[in-house]
Amino acid sequence: MKPPLLSTQNLQIGYSNGKPASKVISFDLNLELHQGEFVCLVGPNGAGKSTLLRTLTGLLPALDGEVLLGAKKLAQYTRKELANEISVVLTSPIEVGAMTVTELVAMGRFPYTGLFDRMSGNDWKIVHQALEMVGLLGFEERMVHKLSDGERQKVMIARALAQEPRILVLDEPTAYLDLPGRVSVMNLLHELTTDHGQTVLTSTHDLDLAMRSADRLWLMSPGGKIISGAPEDLVLSGDFQRVFTRDRITYDVMNGHFSVVGNNEGEICLQAEGELRVWTERALQRVGYSVIEDSPTCPAMRIAVHMNENDVIWVLQDGDQEREFNNLESLVSFLRAH
Amino acid sequence: MNAKSNHTSGSNQAWIFILLGVLLLLVIALNLTLGSVRIPLQDILKVLFGQSGVKDSWVFIVQDYRLPKILTAILAGMALSASGLQMQTMFRNPLADPFILGINSGASLGVAIAIMGAGLAGGLFIPALSAGGDLGLVAAASLGAGLVMGLILLVGRRVQNPTTLLILGLMFGHATSALVSLLIYFSAPEKVKAYSIWSFGSFTGVTWDQLMVLVPVILFALGILAFLPKGLNALLLGEDYARTMGLNVTRLRVLVLISASVLSGAITAFCGPIGFIGVAVPHIARNLFKTSNHKLLIPAVILIGAIVAVTADLVAQMPGSQFVLPINVVTSLFGAPFVLWIVLKRKQGSTSFNV
Lengths: 338, 355
Known about the structure:
The complex is a heterodimer. Chain A is an alpha/beta fold. Chain A has helices spanning 49-56, 79-85, 101-106, 121-133, 149-162, 179-196, 207-213, 231-236, 239-244, 274-286, 328-337, and strands at 6-15, 23-29, 32-33, 38-42, 64-69, 72-73, 86-89, 167-171, 199-203, 216-220, 226-229, 249-252, 257-260, 266-271, 289-293, 301-308, 311-318, 321-325. Chain A starts with 5 loop residues before the first strand and ends with a helix. In chain B, 46% of the residues are buried. Chains A and B meet through helix 2 and strand 7 of A and helix 1, helix 9 and helix 10 of B.
């Protein structure tokens, strides 16, 4: 295996304020980031994700231990050298005032242009490529402050790409975005690694998206400990659930999503198939019933879903009584009142 | 592909620059001809090109009164606007300017110490001061401005909220004013009078000798600014982005500190505290050119600043009357509503410079 692009040795992160009594957020971190990987840093709020990213990008000094970029210590890089290696996208929406998309992306060439910021033909070519990679061709002359939040974050990613970094680091780039924006940005980051071999490290709260696209997760627990591994391995080992389980919220290992533990109303046998089964089950779980496999000796209530012509009918059988429902809404409200 | 559309907007911007240049020449010409005495333009041209056949008194008025005054106004407009632009970007605050952040008060304190403090020290410094003369006054004002600005930078680093920064400036302004009051209280009446006339603000009374000091000082500070557009642009994204782009933020801050405090300090030393030009002109430039790019904004504010200051002086002369208003009256009467407009136009909590 090739040596990692970025690694940490017994890294200790936190804030020092210049006083001896520093606030340690996490210690003994030994992490590795490899060429072309898509790594998502996940963990609950306040675990120290931003602090770690700030330390890895040189914005915050390490309290102890080392960050190695290639074979060289991060602390030995000058700001300018570091700008050739790492570029960032931060959470907060930027407010630059009146600036075109091209002008903003061109700022990615900052480390390469001279004192007066003259752009060469090659610089413009790289800006064009960056816009192409994030799918914003045709946006060149649009004003940044008139774009949607999702588009603006893509412009910031294009700016970071125009910096031609070996590692692209993003701190919760999807935090301010709506759902389509989140999917689109995470998808873009994934494509950058698969299609362009870009190494990407991002922190995110979108666990579902992270689980589906990341090569590896850095799973940060509230104590600051970080476990690294493929998303699926972390679920199977139980680490993922341990970090995120709260009161009444559990990670459903079978279905791969979080669910709220409601009141337990008992069990219901369900006789249905396909999508009707999936969504009926969800409706029943929502009001607190757990669904069990149907059998002739069903000990509890039974719901059978019948289809005739164009209609679907839900038949609820409780002992001798039978009731019919035309939709899940009426079934659920009956169960609630029951 | 986009080179074409860039070119179109680029030529638009060139046209705006040309129009502004014409406008500047126009207000200069108006300012030369109008005043308590009206002098025809052709006679003014004769004076400027050293031809004879003009009344002696007119020659005197143009050469020793109106020309240095207009030159001073141009320098002041350029300096205050450039200073305001740098500060708005550095503090990420659309209301930052030398006057509002109390940096002028720092300069005033420097001047007050130079004018009155010298007397307080038992005449010890008077010979030194008169030897240092105008340059000493500039240095005192620049140091005072730099001191307050440095303090605001130090304290303001922890402040994210734009309003807090303004309150900070207000408090520093009050503190320095208190010190000035203390000086006034213990000073001889004639020195107090000299100080209070100075504090009304005026472009008149700056002599050619003083201009020999003022011109190179302002050019030096604007010269520093010529190297800063790249860094100031990066700073628009915020300090974290700027640092990861390889910008030495501390060095940029120091250079802005020097440039902005010399610009506002030198002008304050010679013209008194002049309000609102520094805050208003960068906004006019952003709205006119529809850009936040400092490569354009810096020449734009310098040009617009000169126009605004010469025009303000024109209004202050109240052509046709014997009356001359203090320049601060004019800039405040027009500037205060303008600042109110900026405040009301801003989105809630926004720190940006939207146009």
